[in-house]
Amino acid sequence: MQVRSLFLLLALILVAATAEAGKNKKEKAKKDVSKCEDWRWGPCVPNSKDCGLGYREGTCKDESKKLKCKIPCNWKKKFGADCKYKFESWGGCSAQTGLKTRSGILKKALYNAQCEETVYVTKPCSSKIKSKSKGQ
């Protein structure tokens, strides 16, 4: 009987401790909530070089915040890391310029970024000649 009572007491203590920990997390999250709704966010500024982990500063009236952010090292610097585009397939190779072109339409602008609706990118044509499948 004593073992059963001890087990029940331990279970009650564990439940109480878990509930208190959850309450602390909720209170901590409430402290970070702002009443301001018109936040203006700046670009993500990497901690070193031009990509990787960094921070983004935001302002709203007299409040300011810093958020952690990350710029992928393969991002299109020309467009900004906060502008996401859906790109078409590469077009044919231009004999005059030796370049291929494709366009991208804006899919999402993060953190109120100023993005172009349509962008165009080029790359050099491949000098390799693709062979047909090996089975033929």
Largest sheet, described in full? 4 strands, antiparallel
* Through-space gap between termini: 81 Å
Going by helix content, strand content and strand pairing, the class is alpha+beta
Q: Overall mean pLDDT score?
A: 80
List the helices and strands and how they pair.
Elements: H1 2-32, E1 40-41, E2 45-46, E3 52-60, E4 63-71, E5 83-87, E6 99-109, E7 118-124
Antiparallel strand pairs: 1-3, 2-3, 3-4, 5-6, 6-7
Organism: Prunella himalayana
InterPro entries: Midkine_heparin-bd_GF (IPR000762), PTN/MK_C_dom (IPR020090), PTN/MK_C_dom_sf (IPR038130), PTN/MK_diS_sf (IPR020091), PTN/MK_N_dom (IPR020089), PTN/MK_N_dom_sf (IPR037122), PTN_MK_heparin-bd_GF_CS (IPR020092)
GO molecular function: growth factor activity; heparin binding
Kindly describe this structure.
With 136 residues, this protein is an alpha+beta fold. Helices cover 23% and strands 33% of the residues. Among the domains are: 36-72, Pleiotrophin/Midkine, N-terminal domain (Heparin-binding Growth Factor, Midkine, Chain A, Single Sheet), CATH 2.20.60.10; 74-124, no CATH class. It has one helix and seven strands. Strands 1, 2, 3 and 4 form a four-stranded antiparallel beta sheet that branches. The protein has a three-stranded antiparallel beta sheet with strand order 5-6-7, with no helix packed on it. The longest helix is centred in the N-terminal third of the chain and has 31 residues, at 2-32. The radius of gyration is 27 Å and the shape is elongated. The model has no long low-confidence stretch (mean pLDDT 80).
